[in-house]
Amino acid sequence: MKKLSIADIAAQLNVSKTVVSFILNNRAEEKRISEELVLRVQKYIKEVGYKPNPLAKSLRTGKTNIIALMVENIADPFFASVARLIENSAYKNGYKIIYCSTDNNTEKTKELLTMFRERSVDGYIIAPPEGIQEEIQSLIDEATPVVFFDRHLPNIQTDVVEIDNQDSTFNATNYLINEGYKSIAFVTFSSKLTQMKSRLDGYKQAINAAGLKTYIKQIIFDQNEDKMVTQIVDFLKKNKNLEAILFGALQAGTNGLKALQQLGFNIPNDMAVISFDDCDVFRLYSPSITAISQPINQIAESAINLLLKRLNSSAQKQQKIIIKTSAVYRQSVEK
Question: Which domains does the chain show, CATH number per domain?
Fold first, then answer.
């Protein structure tokens, strides 16, 4: 069955296409179209079940009212929570969200960006992987709003929402030092992403200031979690003098707990533990795990608000919002 067009409606009702278009776009009063004609057109549209073509509408208005949200992994509890909050806020403001996982894969991200550009999305909220500077700069040059969150790309000038990564690990490491721990390890992912680098810098800063030795393990991410657990097990076997571990990311922490359990460590008697990114696993684990909690509501709200402001006014000054984390003290550090 042929899909009805504005021209079909106009011909059936013996009115002009322009009049039908004005009525569909709520401009009847502005154009002084009679109430009787408006009701007649609306009644017919309801009877035939006419739905406007969103592509045609976007060509007329220059807007699709769609925002692309690109995260590392939509199944990750942190990104899933942020995505849900952004989606809710966007919907209340008349926008729909299309989200995807980049897997921190440069080529995949470039392909996704191309797809979104072809669909003329109005703006982007991105946790960017490495290697997409050229594509992002192209969007910015075209005056397409882009907001980074969780991390940024060096030399790209755009709106950014991040947490105080370096201060977070600096403070967590100092907490362990002040509790009397001397041999403190930092287990993180091998990554050049800005947030991971800052977290490592915070650990080094605190350890160096205290005159202690650094113990750093940068594990290689693998979809097979057993392989990540094995990397941590090997590290622990080679450093039997360790007293405490700070995990620099959620999956490093959850896999680290598996490694400690596999080796028969008692927490906190044999090993004190703190992990980045609080979650149900850390709350429910026995003993419960001290964690660095990211303010997810504030991160999501800041990111969508920055983008909405940018969509309404390209002239606004670019902003970098740094949000403080909080420590959630539990039983995994012996006091």
Answer: 6-52 (1.10.260), 63-162+297-323 (3.40.50.2300), 165-294 (3.40.50.2300)
